[in-house]
Amino acid sequence: MTKATLFFAECQGHRLAYKAYIHPTSDLQPVIWIHGLTGSVNFWEAAMFPEIYRERSWYSISLPLHFPSTFNGTPTKDSLSETLLADLIDAVVRKIPTGKVSIVGYSVGAFAALNYAAKYPDRVASIVSVGGFLTGKAKGIEGIVQFLARGTRLRKAAFHLAYRTLQLHPLVFKLATFAYARKWRRLASYPQLDPTIRNIFPDVRRHDPEGQRIWFYYLLKMNLLDETCVIDCPVLVIAGDKDPIIPFEHQVKYASLLPNAETLVLPGVGHVAFGESPDQFREAVLKWFSKHAG
Question: Domain spans of the chain?
Fold first, then answer.
C-alpha cells in the first residue's frame, strides 16, 4: 500500500492540509479526492479502492477550517469565498507534476471540485460529484444546522453546543452519520465505516466549532448556477434518489445544465452513496477513471 505524506499549502491566511499517496512508477493521471463537511483529510484512506493504490498516485485535500488545516486568526464570514476555495485547491494542484487532474468530491467537496473547474477549467480533466450541488441550501439535519448557524446569538450558541456534542465520542459521530443515509442497514454493514471514523475522529475533535459554523453559514451563499457553461469538463453526477440532505431534483437539474455531464441515479440511496451502494459506486468510479483519467 502506498504510504501517505502530509503537506500544507498556504493562501490568504489559510494553511490547507493535503495528503499525497505517490505511486513510485505509475504514469496514469493522479486523482484528487475531497471530503465533505465535518470530515478530514483522512476521510478517504480506509475506503480507497485497492485498484487506486495499485495503479496511480492520488491526493486527499482537506477543506479549509477542517483540522489539520488551520487558519491564521479567528474565522469570520469573510474567511470563505468561492474564489478563495478555488485558489486553495489550485495551490495544491500546482504542486502536482501533471498537466491536469481528475477530482472526486463528496457533498461540499463536490461543490469545491465543480467550483474549481469553473475558475480553473484548464486544470481539470474530469469530475465525479457524489451528492454534490451548485447551490448550498440543504434540507434535513443540515438544513436545521444551517438555521442554527445564522442569525441570533442564541442560535449560534445552540450550534456550538450541537457541534461539541458531535465531538464527544466516535459513537455519537457514527450515529449522526446515519441521519444522512436511507439504506441504514447497508451503511451499518459497510466494512469501511468504522475504520473511516477511527481515522477522522481525532481530527474532528480538533475542528473549531466556530469555523464549522462559518462553513454552514457560507453554504447558504454558494451558487454556481451562473457558471454552468464554463464547467465543460466531463462530470459524473452520482445521486441517491432518496438523498435527505441535497434534494435529488437539484442534483438532476444541475447535471442537465452542465455541457458534458452524465448522471448515475442510485435507487433508494441517501447522501452516503459510497457506503449505501458500495459495489455500484466502486464500479462506476473505476469505469469513469479508465475513460477519463488514463
Answer: 4-292
> What CATH class is the domain 4-292?
alpha beta
Please report which helix (H) or strand (E) contains residue 128, including its range: strand 124-130
Evaluated on CA atoms 176, 177, 181, 184, the torsion sign reads negative
Q: Which residues 6+ apart lie within 8 Å of 21 measured at CB?
A: 2, 3, 4, 48, 53, 57, 58, 59, 60
Q: Which of 81, 77, 101, 78 is nearest to 18 (CA)?
A: 101
Looking at every residue in the chain, the average pLDDT score rounds to 95
Report the distance separating Cα 169 and Cα 164, nearest Å: 10
Question: Which has the closest alpha carbon to 214: 6, 9, 13, 1?
Answer: 13
Residues 18 and 38: beta-carbon distance below 8 Å: no
Q: Which residues of the chain have pLDDT under 50?
A: none
What pLDDT sits at residue 2? 63
Cell readout for 17 is 492540509
